[in-house]
Each structure stands twice: as C-alpha cells, then as structure tokens.
Amino acid sequence: MNLDELRTFLEVVDSGSLASAAPRLNVTPSTVTARINALETQLGCRLLHRNKSGAELTAAGFRLQRYAELMTQLWRQARHDVALPSGVQGVCNVGLEFDLWRDVGSRFLEHVRGHAPAIATAIWPGEQRQLNRWLDIGLIDIAFCYVAQAGEGFTSRLLIEDALVLVAARPGASAELDAAYVYVDHGDEFRRQHAEAFPGARPTLVTIAASEWALEYLGSTGSKGYLPERIVGAHLAAGRLHAVAEAPRFVRRVYLVENVRAVRAWDWYEAAVVASRAR
Q: Cα-flanking dihedrals φ and ψ of residue 101, to 5°?
C-alpha cells in the first residue's frame, strides 16, 4: 500500500468513477485501475462496486475511506512540518469551524504573523466531527469550535459568546417567521433556543447552514434570518441590513480546545488567544 493508491481510491470515491478520477490525478485510466486493483489485493477485499455507470463503495471501502483520509492528511501535515523554511521555529496547526474565520480565526492568524513571525501557521477548516478527529490524531493543536472537547491531554475554554440577532434586508420587517424568513442552522443549542422562542413554528422553505452564505442570500432576496452580530455589525451600521425590532436574541458559545502539551511551550500563544476574542 502506498499513498498514491490511497489518493487514487479517494479520488474515485469523490468523482464517482475510475474514468473520471484519471484526469483529476493526471494519469491514464489504466493507471487508476491498476492502483485500485493493487489496493484491493493488499487488503484482500473488494473496495468498490464497479459498473458502467461508475463506482460505489462496498462495506469494506466505506470503512477504509476514513482511514485513507486520515493517512493522506497526516502525510500532508508531516511534509509541511518537516519541510519548514529557514528561520521557522515551529508550527501551529489550527482547526476552525467555517463560521469562525471572520473576526476569530483571522484575528488569531493576524496576531501570530505580526508578533510571532517565526511560527508557521496552518489553518484547517472543518465541521465539529472532523475537528474532534483531527485533535485526537494530532493533526491540529487547537480548534475554534462550538462544542467543548473532553479527553486526556485536552482543555476547553469558553472563548466568546456569539450573539445571534434577527436581521432583514429591508427595514420594518416583522419578527414573525413568515415567508421571508430563512432558517440559518447554527447547531444544536440554537435549535433548542429557537424552538423555545418560537413554539409551533412551521418548517421554513429555505434552510442554510453557513452564516456567510446566508448573509449573501438575505441581501440578494430581501429575506431575513438569524446571523452572528459580529458578522452583520458593519452591514447594520451601513444600512445594508436592519435589525428586526422585538425579535428574541440567542447566544452561541464559541470554545477554544487545546492540546495541552503543544500550547504549553508557546510563549506567544496567550496573546494571540486574547487577540482572537477582541471586539
């Protein structure tokens, strides 16, 4: 087994067929076939159901997929860490929920680049389950996320409380969950708070699970929805969005999960954390 075989396997899964994977990998279809055959021979099982319409994972292939992803990710990380340019003293690997780049991840990175220029920084966006897995295997040292992580060698601390406010693209919008309302899914805790505040609310026609996407959609359609105050503040000040009067406000807690052994040696780190929570 080698990394080329694992990468090829993942590309076939992503593209849906051996033929489609070949140009993505810049190899011939016969090379893709040979690599998949070699991988299946070494593992002693069929990984893909191959047919004229494409390729689908077998049960064994489904189990292998997550290991293949981890192994290729770890190799990329190892190559990055080992091949550091001259003058670099260390690496900080950061996991980040997508909605936390603006004002949180970006400020952390800005501080590191400005005050600890000898530290290389790698930012890995992902969902909570990915961040938890990356922390467990050591792919990342810290994670900005919405769920505290418990486990040996980790600590979690509350970083900020992200206020979620109902905003509309048009002034004078009501706080009712009418046809103009877009449900922006901010996770389990928001769902609970939302259900308590709006009991018996009907399902909405549009649900978006990313704040930046929802912000763009609201502006282009004249809709309304709940978004983090830190993201919409400038839009409210400029009159591009409008706060909906008398609408309930919610809170989404943001945590910083840390690999204790990794962060202990970083004398620059605490100031970067403070910068990431600045408002």
A: -70, -50
Task: Taking residues 80-100, report their average pLDDT.
Answer: 80
Measured distance CA(88)–CA(65) in Å, rounded: 34
Q: Which CATH superfamily is domain 87-157+254-276 in?
A: Periplasmic binding protein-like II (3.40.190.10)
Q: Torsion angle, CA of 214/219/222/224, rounded to 10 degrees?
A: 40
Whether pTM > 0.90 for this model: the answer is: no
Q: List, in order, residues 6 or more apart from 26 with CB less than 8 Å away.
A: none
Q: Which of 97-101, 147-151, 241-245 has the lowest mean pLDDT?
A: 147-151
In angstroms, rounded to a whole number, what is the distance separating the alpha carbons of residues 252 and 14? 33
Per-residue pLDDT averaged across 256-265, rounded?
91
Structural domain 3-80, CATH architecture: Orthogonal Bundle (1.10)
> Residue ranges of the domains in the chain?
3-80, 87-157+254-276, 161-253
Question: May I ask the CATH architecture of the domain 161-253?
Answer: 3-Layer(aba) Sandwich (3.40)
Q: What is the pLDDT of residues 128-172, one digit of tens each?
A: 888 988 888 888 999 999 999 877 788 999 999 999 999 999 999
